[in-house]
Amino acid sequence: MNSSSKIALFMLALALLFSCKPQTKERADSVSKAQVRLTGITKGYIPDYIELSGKTIYLNKSNLVAPISGYITKVNVQQGDKVKKGDLLFEMQSPEAYVMKDESKFGSVQIKATTTGQLVSLSIVSTGVFADKGSPMCTILSSNDLKLQVNFPFEFDKYAKIGNKCKVVLPDSSVITGTFTNILPQIDEVSQTEKVLADLNNKSFIPENIIVKVLLDKSTKHEVQVLAKECIQTDALMSEFWVMKLINDSTVVKIPVQTGNQSHDKIEILSPQFEEGAKFVSEGGYGLGDTTIVEIIK
User: Fold this and answer.
1) Total Cβ atoms within 10 A of residue 22
2) Over the stretch 125-157, which tens digit does the pLDDT of each residue have?
3) Whether 149 contacts 54, CB under 8 Å
4) Does the 61-143 domain belong in CATH 2.40.50.100?
5) Which value, to the nearest 10 degrees, does the dihedral of the CA atoms of residues 124, 126, 128, 133 take?
6) Which residues pair with 175 in a beta bridge?
7) Cα–Cα distance for residue pair 196/55, rounded to 1 Å
8) What integer best gives the mean pLDDT of the chain?
9) Distance (Å, rounded) from C-alpha 71 to C-alpha 159?
10) Residue 26 has pLDDT above 50, yes or no
11) Contact 176, 215 (CB under 8 A)
12) In the chain, where does the domain assigned CATH 2.40.420.20 lie?
């Protein structure tokens, strides 16, 4: 082979070598990275609730009755009105005074509210009506006598302690706090539940016989690591759990975890203990390998 042929082959080899480099770089650039979102870990506590049922009751109902037989001469209230103790509700007059149209108040009787509360029933709605002695006139629910009656399965008896607090979820999804005050010494033989009474921390009027959800925390309060639930991955049998943790600016690794209590959007991480400021994949983590290069999106 002469020298000109050698030079030509050398130039061809150089051309092929340099033509391969852009292709290699182009191929490397074409490898797509998994796009993920990250979130941090916090310290907190997730309650472990027992869900019970209960209903609102009024222990004392003030039933007002006609003190004499006579005619109603004045009605100052309507059903649903709020009244204070001592408010004038009705006036009555004996049959003799009513027939004589005596305006001197002779034979007249005033019927006043015996407690502060709300009128839930009204039997006398107009004047001129005759009422026998002892006939019902109205019923007042005392606002101070509202209680929550909780049906406690006996297996949870140890949580039915006076002074324990619970969350009460009303039908409109509003939540108020209850405090256990009395434990009634009876067990329903069919349902095997005991009745526990609680005071409600509520200033507005709540009707009687509302069915509510009662949430009682049965766990001991403690501070642990809390992570967004979407960060947790598991196997088909839900026997193993893990997270994908960021270890540098573009690499995440799989770390097995032990979980604790959980809510609808949070979960406790009991172990291992992560450093403050640690970041975890919250979106885009499904199917990632044990160690994966990722692209972080905001």
Assistant:
1) 9
2) 999 999 999 999 999 988 778 899 999 998 888
3) yes
4) yes
5) 10
6) 169
7) 11
8) 86
9) 55
10) no
11) no
12) 34-48+222-296
As annotated, the residues of the chain forming the CATH 2.40.50.100 domain(s) are: 61-143
Closest CA to 89 of 72, 70, 71, 107: 72
Judging by DSSP bridges, how do beta strands 136-142 and 61-65 pair with one another?
Answer: antiparallel
**How do strand 291-296 and strand 34-40 relate by DSSP bridges?**
parallel
Domain with CATH 2.40.30.170 in the chain: 49-58+145-217
How far is the C-alpha of 146 from the C-alpha of 199, rounded, in Å?
A: 7
Backbone angles phi, psi at 10, to 5 degrees: -65, -45
> Could you tell me how far CA 77 lies from the centroid of its own chain?
38
- Name the CATH topology of 34-48+222-296: 2.40.420
Q: Contacts by 95-102 with C-beta closer than 8 Å and gap 24+? A: 95/69, 95/70, 95/71, 95/130, 97/70, 98/70, 98/71, 98/73
Supply 184's token pair: 């009634």
Give the pLDDT of residue 27.
45
What are the tens digits of pLDDT across the range 1-19?
Answer: 555 555 555 566 655 555 5
CB atoms within 10 A of CB 62: 19
What residues contact 58, with CB distance under 8 A and at least 6 apart? Answer: 141, 142, 145, 146, 147, 208
Quick check: 263 pLDDT over 60?
Answer: yes
Collapse the DSSP code of 12 into the 3-class scheme (helix H, G, I; strand E, B; otherwise coil) and give the result. Answer: helix
What is the CATH T-level fold of the domain 49-58+145-217, as seen in this structure? Answer: Elongation Factor Tu (Ef-tu); domain 3 (2.40.30)
> Shortest CA distance to 93 belongs to which of 106, 108, 76?
108
Residue 156: helix, strand or coil by DSSP? Answer: helix
